[in-house]
Design a protein that fits this description.
The protein is mainly α. 86% of the residues lie in helices and 0% in strands. It is globular.
């Protein structure tokens, strides 16, 4: 009964703190909005300084920026790194409390810190699998629009392709992003790099190279597109086989986690006291759980790497 009282008191305290913080933040946001309306706000806030410092690591910043933009997520690289850092601190704190060892603290913190980036890569592989089968019809439609527009302007052909809205599945959003970036961004190479990252297979790289030649040199690409379509039609059956292999890899990625949950659930169902002792109280049991999480995380990373190689 005392444990129930402590739990109820903890929940009540949490609710009170949450309500208080919510109202304080609401009042602060209203005051800041009034200040912005009345005075000029300098570009020296902590967010601006953090973003400016992070941009010094150009390769990492560009990589995260391209990854987030290819997934069409409204998050800045600085915010993503901040979330990863907070999860790293939370993992270190919780790992120290639960595992009570330097190894468990650092490993569990590293797992939680790397979780957002791993989730982004997994989401990217999922998006690539969705677009892989619809890429050939998209290129065929672009080829038709390119012929109709006079074989002169790639941007005009892209505009017509997007406006007809006959692209299948997620390919509509991919081509809309490409056309928007080529029209507004002003950096054709970065726009083509985003397209290649979004699709992530060999045929997409060939298509990007063809578009690069047309944008840089301004030469007709009719023959190149026709040859690309011919090769893609011949390799369509092989692509379906690769897609089935990738699906098998994805199923294999989640099977260790399912089996771990199944075994722990069975042990808790039939012998709750001993299971709690060996999984939570005993240090060797906690190390066993940590090793299992490490192996599952490593197998998941291996599955992502194999999926990338199969594309």
């Amino acid at each position: 009964m005392s444990q129930l009282s402590v739990s109820a008191a903890a929940c009540l305290l949490f609710c009170l703190i949450f309500i208080a913080l919510y109202h304080l933040l609401l009042i602060w946001s209203k005051e800041q909005e009034m200040v912005r309306k009345l005075t000029y706000r300098a570009e020296s806030s902590w967010r601006k300084r953090l973003t400016h410092r992070f941009k010094r690591y150009e390769r990492l910043y560009v990589h995260l920026s391209d990854l987030l933009e290819s997934l069409r997520l409204k998050m800045t690289p600085s915010a993503f790194v901040s979330v990863s850092g907070l999860l790293l601190l939370a993992g270190v704190a919780s790992g120290g409390l639960f595992f009570q060892s330097v190894r468990g603290t650092l490993l569990f913190g590293s797992l939680l810190g790397a979780l957002p980036y791993t989730a982004l890569r997994a989401l990217l592989v999922h998006r690539r699998m969705q677009t892989q089968m619809d890429f050939l019809p998209a290129v065929e439609l672009f080829y038709q629009c390119y012929l109709v527009t006079g074989e002169s302007q790639v941007r005009v052909a892209l505009q017509r392709t997007v406006e007809e809205r006959r692209l299948l599945g997620p390919m509509q959003a991919v081509f809309e992003q490409l056309y928007r970036n080529l029209s507004v961004r002003g950096d054709d190479e970065a726009s083509l790099r985003l397209l290649s990252l979004s699709l992530g297979h060999l045929w997409a790289d060939y298509f990007v190279n063809i578009l690069r030649v047309a944008l840089v040199e301004g030469v007709p690409i009719t023959d190149s597109l026709k040859e690309l379509l011919t090769d893609m039609r011949k390799a369509r059956r092989a692509n379906e086989q690769e897609r089935n292999r990738m699906l098998e890899i994805r199923v294999a990625n989640f099977s260790p986690l399912l089996f771990l949950g199944l075994f722990i659930g069975i042990n808790l169902r039939y012998n709750k006291d001993n299971s709690y002792y060996y999984y939570v109280v005993d240090p060797q049991g906690r190390d066993m759980l940590l090793n299992a999480l490490l192996l599952i995380f490593a197998s998941f990373l291996m599955g992502l790497w194999l999926s990338r190689k199969k594309m």
